[in-house]
Amino acid sequence: MAIVDKRGTDGFPASITDIQSSALTQGGNEIHLYPGTYTAPTGVVASDYAYIGMGDKDEIIINGDMTIADGSSGQITFKNITFQGAADTTATGAACVTKLGNTATTLKFYDCAFTNNDLGVNQMGNLTSHAAAGVLGIEMWHCDASGVDRAIMSNANAEINYTALNTSSNTYYKVGNDTLNGAPAHTVTVRASTSGGSNAGNMTETVLALVS
Fold first, then answer.
1. Fewer CB under 10 Å: which end of the chain, C or N?
2. Across all residues in the chain, what is the average pLDDT?
3. In terms of Cα–Cα distance, which of 158, 163, 59, 151 is closest to 106?
4. 206-212: long-range contacts (C-beta < 8 A, 24 or more apart)?
5. Alpha carbon distance 175, 153 (integer Å)
6. Does position 177 have pLDDT exceeding 60, yes or no?
């Protein structure tokens, strides 16, 4: 049976650094975050786990740089959350959310915002492992990454949908390591999204706009 934890309400602490390992790795579980500021966990090992904001995403803040460990698997989902990074500088390479290591783990974001950092998301898992599993490295829907210097760095394929990327002229999507990408080809699909910059790296981009 799936486990649904709560934080920041009904006497539960405003903390996501103390989630039990068994809950994170069982598969199909989720945690509901109520309005408040939560310290970003690091080295999270999870499998098919979801962090769900309950309320206005501007009031549900994960503060600091969150990292997902190499031992994770499946999909790690974030919904209705604002990520407030720890590095308010440009070109630091710091990201609000980073997937460490090469194993295939999809990071999915729905209606999330990214602020106060160089990068919104950094997917370090390589293209080969994700392609072998038939999954994307990053999937983003209805998000706002205008508060970071560069929106995404990824070694694996990605899909960006209806999202406001960085407004600066800096790269909105950068291939993290070209040496990991060749066959199969690195691809990113961008659907009805906006940015002040362009992409960079050895990749193929498909841009799908709305028909007016």
1. C
2. 91
3. 158
4. none
5. 6
6. yes
